[in-house]
Predict the 3D structure of the following.
Amino acid sequence: MGYLKVTYSQDHKPFDELGVPRCHYKHNWLTKNYKFPFDLEFNRTYYKHDGEKLIAFRILAYTIDDNTTHNDKPSLIFLVQMPNQPLQWLVDFITPYIAVYKSVDEYVMSGGANCVSLCWQSWNCRFNVRNVHNDTYFFNDEFWTIQQGVVTKSNGAYFNRFVVTEDGFFVNIGNDSYHNYYKERGIFLDKMSATKVLLNNMSVVDFENDPITIKMKVLDNTPKLLKIQFVE
């Protein structure tokens, strides 16, 4: 199984349009205790029991919840659609411990036993990541910075927004470096972007173009008359 693709951006507009909550912290690592429902089908109608009745719902997106005042364990925030209600972001609307059903019939016929598996797994299991601490990880992709007048790779990248939708996994990378004490000047998603910033308005003093000389040997074209005589 290959790694899942992550799309990086430093533009907040698409995240704002979806109303994705901003993280409370600069995340240059994330604990493996965050679990994602990798088999969740977005915009599909599911059902869950709230203790009194079955509730139909659809999930359009989810993100991490890093607000430690909500609870003391890693949680997710879901963009949820329910009948006759506006879209709303809800913390822990579903978890690995909440039974979810594909239909009313499946709930009724099984007495609530036949719930669907959403494949909850630690987030780092499905992405190309690098280990930061014993149980924390960050995306193992190349991010660039300018340090002491040179474009170089950086470990100072962090994300401030992260969202999952039916179109994939999207991460908003901060423009500044987490490692300010390393004197890193900015974070860039590719080397060329960093190079353009480094060279912007920079004067380049260079030699004039080296002169070139093309030599061609021209042979004398004065006619030479030869007289041929036969001597008997």
In short: The first strand starts at residue 6 and ends at 9. The two ends are 99 Å apart (CA to CA).
